[in-house]
What does this fold into?
Amino acid sequence: MKCRKCGEKASVNMRQHKLALCKDHYLEWIPEQTDRFIKKYQMFSPDERILVAVSGGKDSLSLWDILVRLGFHADGLYIGLGIDGGINYSNESQRLTEEFANQNNLKLHIVEIEREYGLSIPALSMQTQRGLGKPCAVCGLTKRHEMNRIARDLGYDVLATGHNLDDEAAVLFGNTLTWSADYLLRQGPVLPASDGLSRKVKPLCRFYEREMTAYALLRGINYIYEECPHAVGSTSIYYKEILNQIETARPGAKLTFYLRFLEARRSGELFVEPNLEAAHLHPCTNCGQLTSAPDLCTFCRMMEKVKPTPV
Ligand code: Q46
Ligand code: ZN
Ligand code: ZN
It folds into this structure.
């Protein structure tokens, strides 16, 4: 297989795009395409300050690398979850994130949940029992809250995450199976800013997971290979496996599924009943983030439960 641009031996063959590229042209193609998506979906402009949520994984570190190469002002945010799982997961992912930031002379903010709130994510999950065995519900809620908080407090215009096409297609698949109208309404490459919350963007949402793996490896990014130990057996991994089977039989099916959804929603062809509840958001009385609850947001309500009782 030869590179379409120079005729040298290809390093990456993308069947769904009918495109094969050598290493150098692939490393050019991914940032070019990312730039195209940023413009197409009007994610941000060159003068805006971007906060990239980095986990130490291939997607978020590659996203940071790409945005900086494209000349954007992008700083990183690492959230220390305190997850060990026998593989020292959080320590190792933090070490690799710091290494990347130092090597590239980039600014990285670190928030450690245990230092901030007195409990790690697994401990918080145990105490509140929201996780019922798995800490993922507590973890997701806490990460969202902290990303919003830091972006707002430090005055970033945009919060960027490294979700790839496989992530987005799996979420879409799950939301379609249950026809979760309000989630379907909110899913997309850009979630506009609302009172006190920065705009959220996903510049990698049109790249397959293996395209991002190829980018990280060819670029020489040192990332954490292990998944979070709590990801094992999750619904999203199950949906990804199903979509991978479909993709193997019909190359391009995942991309078509996601892009047709975006197009159908944009054109009004797909009618999703708006959630009237969502229209009644107001600031949490403790942290100021928007919530549909009458006083405290879900995160602050959870933290109330773990507050030590005065003696
Ligand atoms: S939610 Fe669950 Fe992830 Fe948190 S506890 Fe690990 S698997 S990191 S995206
Ligand atoms: Zn080439
Ligand atoms: Zn709150």
Residues 31-306 form a domain with the Rossmann fold fold (CATH 3.40.50.620). The CA atoms of residues 291 and 298 lie 8 Å apart.
